[in-house]
Write a structure and sequence with these properties.
heterodimer, A: 318 residues, 12 helices, 3 strands, B: alpha/beta, four-stranded mixed sheet, 15 helices
Chain lengths: 318, 415
C-alpha cells in the first residue's frame, strides 16, 4: 500500500503514467531497448522497512540520453524525497508530535509561466537560421564573383570594387532583415501564435546590429575559401563553436574557465541574450543597451578584419 | 538497366573525374577532414549539461538567524551568489536583463512562523528565458529546501528528546546505466559522431551535381552514353569514401583521445555507419539535383542538415518533447536513421549489441535512398527542354534560354 502511495505520485505532466514491470529480466529488456528511461525498483517489504526507517529503493537510469536522464532522475528523486518527508511527518503526528516547521516553496518562473519550451525552441531555431543565412549568404555572394571569374571584369570597369562589394553586402542584409521582419510577423506571431514581447522594430534593430557581425564573419569566410564548395564547410566549422559558446544550450556559467573567456568573441552569444531578453523577458531597450553596444563593437571588429582580409587576399593578392 | 562490361568503366570514369575535381582544391580536402575533427573537439570539451555557477540573488525581509542559515545553503558549486537585493524592482530588473537566473525571496514573518511550528513560505523567482534551465534550477532549489526541511525537523525532534532516528526513511540508490558517472561526455561524444556525420557528407556532396549544371558541363554528360544511375553512383563514390575515412578518424579520436572504451563490437557498428553515411550523401545529392544554382545548393544543404542535427537529434533536447512537424521528420526517416545510429552507438560503446541497428537503419534508408535515383530526373529534364527548343529555332544556342552558363554571360553582374 505504501509503495502504491509512492508510485501514485509519479504522474503527468512530468512523467507519463508509469507501467509496471514484473520481473528482473524485463527491466534489462526495457532499458536496453530504450523503451523507458527510468526504472524504479521497490523491494519486497517496503512498508515494513519504512516503519523501521530502513527502507531503500533503487532507481535505474538510462544514461545514454544525458539531458533526459538528468532531468528525469532529478524529478524522481524529488518525488521520493517529498514522499519520505511526508511519511515522516505522518509518523510524527501519529506519535503526537505536532507543530513541526517546514518550509513551503512557492516558485514562479518569470516571463514564461508554463516553461513553454515551444516558444523557446522556435525562437532558438529562428536565431540559428538567421545566423546561418547571415553568414553563408554574403560569403557566397562574395565568392561567387571570384568563382565565375567575373571579378576581373569588375576590376576593369569604372565601378570601384570596394563600393560594389559593400553594395552587395548591403543588399544581402536588406534581404535578410526583410525576411526576418516577415517571419516575425507572419510565421512566428500569426501562424505559430507565439506571444512575443518585443516590438518588431526593436527586434529588427538588434538584428541589424547582428547582421553587421555576421557579415564581418562572412567576409572572413570568403577570404579563406577559394571556392564556393568550401563555403559550406567553413560556415559549419565557424557556426558550431559559435553555437556552443552562445549560451543557448550550455549556460556560459557552466563552461570550463578557458571556454568562458572565449564566449566574449561569439556574436551569437550577445544576439541570443538580446533576443531572449527582448522577446521572452520583455526587456526594454535601456536594459538591452550594454549588450547592444558590445555587439556593435564586436561587429565593427569583425567587419574591419574581414574586409581587410578579403581586400588583401581576393582583390589585391591574387 | 543491364549492367554490362562498360558499366564499371563508365562509373569509374565519373568517379575519377569527381576525384580530380576534389583533389584540385587542396583546401577542400583538408577541410573535409579537419572541420569534423575541430567541431568534434569543440563540442566534446565544451558541452556539459550540469548547471554550475548560476548567478543567484536573494531578498531577505526577515534578517533572522534562520534566514541567514537558509541563504548559506545557496552558496556552493551550483550557485554563484551575487548578493542581496533590496527591492522587488531591483530583482525584476536584474532578472529581465538576464544577469540573474534566480532570486530567493524570504518573507518578513519567516522565522516567526517557523518558531511557532507553522509552515513558512519562501518564494523563488526563476528566469524563464531558457525553459530547461528554469526547470533544472527549480529542481535544485526544491532539493535544497527539502534538505533544509529535513534538518529543521531533525533539530526539533532532538530538542523534543524523542527517540527516533533522524535519518531518511527512504534511502535511494541511483544507478546510471551505460554511463556510470553520468559524465555528460560519455553520452555526448559518441552521438557527436552521428551528428557530424549527418552534416558533413551532405554538405560535401551538395555541389556535386549543382556545379555541373551551373557551369554547363552537364551537357557534356548528356552527350555520352552514360546512364542516369551510373552517373549518380559514380558521383557518390568519392564522397562515400571520404566520409567513411572521416568516420574512422572520429572513432579513433573517441577511443584514444577521449578514452571512451567501446564495450560493444565495432563490427556491429560499421554496417550501420555505412548505411547512415549513404543516406546522408544521398541527401546531399538530392539537394544538388533539385536546386538550380550552386549557392542555393550550399545554403539549403547547410541549413537543412545543421538544424535537425542539433535540434532534432536528442542530443541537447529530450526528444520526447518533439511533436507536430518535427515528429513527422522523426517518423520519416531522417531522424530514424539518426536515431538508429545514436541509439546503437552508445549501446555499442557500452553494451554488447545485436545487429538491431541494421534493420531500422535499412528501413530508413529505403525511402531516402530512392529519392536521388528518381530525382536524377530533374537534372535530366533539362535535356528534353533544351533539345525541344533547339529543334524549334535553329541556330539558337541552348545557352541563351533560361539561365545560361555564367561563363557566357559577360555583362551580367550578379547581385
Amino acid at each position: 500500500m505504501r509503495s502504491r502511495e509512492l508510485t501514485d505520485r509519479i504522474k503527468p505532466p512530468a512523467f507519463k503514467q508509469p507501467g509496471i514491470i514484473y520481473n528482473r529480466q524485463e527491466i534489462d529488456y526495457m532499458l536496453n531497448e530504450s523503451k523507458t528511461i527510468l526504472v524504479l525498483v521497490i523491494p519486497d517489504g517496503f512498508e515494513r522497512d519504512l516503519h523501521r526507517n530502513s527502507a531503500s529503493v533503487q532507481v535505474l537510469v538510462d544514461g545514454t540520453q544525458s539531458s533526459a536522464a538528468y532531468l528525469s532522475s532529478a524529478y524522481l528523486n524529488l518525488i521520493i524525497e517529498q514522499y519520505s518527508n511526508d511519511f515522516r511527518m505522518e509518523m510524527l503526528k501519529v506519535n503526537n508530535i505536532t507543530g513541526l516547521p517546514s518550509i513551503d516553496i512557492k516558485s514562479r518562473i518569470c516571463f514564461n509561466e508554463e516553461a513553454n519550451d515551444k516558444l523557446f525552441e522556435g525562437i532558438n531555431e529562428f536565431f540559428m537560421i538567421i545566423t546561418l543565412i547571415g553568414m553563408i549568404l554574403p560569403a557566397a555572394i562574395l565568392i561567387r564573383e571570384k568563382e565565375y571569374g567575373t571579378i576581373e571584369q569588375i576590376m576593369i570597369s569604372p565601378l570601384s570594387i570596394q563600393k560594389l562589394l559593400m553594395m552587395k553586402v548591403i543588399a544581402a542584409s536588406i534581404f535578410l532583415l526583410s525576411m526576418i521582419g516577415l517571419s516575425y510577423e507572419f510565421v512566428l506571431s500569426l501562424w505559430l501564435g507565439f506571444r512575443l514581447k518585443g516590438t518588431i522594430l526593436e527586434f529588427l534593430l538588434i538584428s541589424l546590429i547582428y547582421s553587421f557581425a555576421t557579415t564581418g564573419l562572412a567576409f572572413i569566410i570568403a577570404s579563406i575559401a577559394k571556392r564556393l564548395s568550401q563555403i559550406g564547410l567553413l560556415t559549419m566549422a565557424i557556426f558550431a563553436p559559435m553555437l556552443l559558446l552562445a549560451g543557448g544550450w550550455v549556460p556560459p556559467e557552466s563552461l570550463p574557465e578557458w571556454l568562458r573567456k572565449l564566449t566574449v568573441i561569439s556574436p551569437m552569444k550577445y544576439y541570443m541574450d538580446l533576443g531572449i531578453s527582448l522577446l521572452i523577458r520583455g526587456a526594454s531597450l535601456d536594459l538591452l543597451l550594454p549588450n547592444m553596444i558590445k555587439l556593435l563593437i564586436l561587429g565593427a571588429i569583425f567587419m574591419a578584419a574581414g574586409y581587410f582580409l578579403y581586400d588583401r587576399r581576393i582583390i589585391k593578392g591574387e | 538497366m543491364k549492367p554490362g562490361r562498360n558499366t564499371l568503366k563508365r562509373i569509374f570514369a565519373i568517379t575519377s573525374k569527381e576525384v580530380k575535381e576534389i583533389v584540385r582544391v587542396r583546401l577542400f580536402l583538408m577541410l573535409a577532414f579537419v572541420v569534423p575533427f575541430i567541431m568534434f573537439n569543440v563540442f566534446a570539451y565544451g558541452i556539459s549539461l550540469d548547471i554550475e555557477n548560476m548567478p543567484f540573488g536573494y531578498i531577505d525581509y526577515d534578517h533572522s538567524q534562520i534566514s541567514s542559515q537558509l541563504i548559506e545553503k545557496f552558496k556552493g558549486r551550483n550557485f554563484d551568489m551575487k548578493g542581496e537585493m533590496f527591492s522587488p524592482q531591483q530583482a525584476d530588473r536584474l532578472l529581465t536583463s538576464g544577469e540573474l537566473r534566480a532570486v530567493l525571496v524570504i518573507p518578513p514573518d519567516f522565522s516567526r512562523e517557523l518558531y511557532s511550528g507553522r509552515n513558512a513560505e519562501v518564494q523563488f523567482l526563476i528566469d524563464g528565458g531558457y525553459p530547461y534551465r528554469a526547470l533544472t534550477i527549480k529542481g535544485y532549489c526544491q532539493a535544497i529546501i527539502l534538505s533544509f526541511n529535513r534538518e529543521l525537523i531533525g533539530e526539533k525532534i532532538q530538542k523534543a528528546g524523542v527517540q527516533m532516528t533522524t535519518g531518511q526513511p527512504i534511502r535511494r540508490e541511483t544507478r546510471y546505466l551505460f554511463n556510470e558517472s553520468l559524465k555528460s561526455s560519455y553520452a555526448l561524444v559518441p552521438s557527436l559522431i552521428a551528428i557530424i556525420l549527418l552534416m558533413n557528407p551532405a554538405v560535401l556532396t551538395a555541389l556535386a551535381i549543382a556545379r555541373e549544371k551551373e557551369f554547363g558541363t552537364i551537357y557534356n554528360i548528356y552527350s555520352t552514353p552514360i546512364k542516369k544511375w551510373e552517373f549518380l553512383v559514380g558521383k557518390i563514390i568519392p564522397y562515400l569514401f571520404i566520409s567513411a575515412l572521416n568516420f574512422t578518424v572520429l572513432v579513433i579520436t573517441v577511443k584514444f583521445l577521449f578514452q571512451i572504451s567501446m564495450k560493444g563490437n565495432i563490427l556491429d557498428l560499421i554496417p550501420g555507419a555505412l548505411v547512415y553515411i549513404l543516406i546522408n550523401v544521398s541527401f546531399g545529392l538530392l539537394v544538388s539535383s533539385v536546386t538550380r544554382t550552386m549557392v542555393s545548393a550550399q545554403i539549403v544543404t547547410v541549413i537543412v542538415t545543421v538544424i535537425p542535427a542539433f535540434l532534432y537529434s536528442g542530443l541537447l533536447i529530450p526528444v520526447t518533447n518533439l511533436e507536430g512537424g518535427a515528429k513527422i521528420i522523426k517518423d520519416h526517416g531522417i531522424y530514424l536513421s539518426h536515431h538508429a545510429f545514436h541509439e546503437d552507438h552508445p549501446r555499442c560503446l557500452s553494451e554488447k549489441s545485436e545487429l538491431l541497428q541494421s534493420p531500422s537503419a535499412v528501413s530508413a534508408a529505403r525511402p531516402l535512398f530512392l529519392y536521388p535515383l528518381f530525382s536524377g530526373n530533374p537534372c535530366f529534364q533539362e535535356e528534353g527542354r533544351v533539345s525541344h527548343v533547339a529543334a524549334d529555332k535553329k541556330g539558337t544556342s541552348p545557352h541563351t534560354q533560361g539561365q545560361g552558363s555564367p561563363y557566357l554571360c559577360h555583362l551580367r553582374i550578379y547581385l
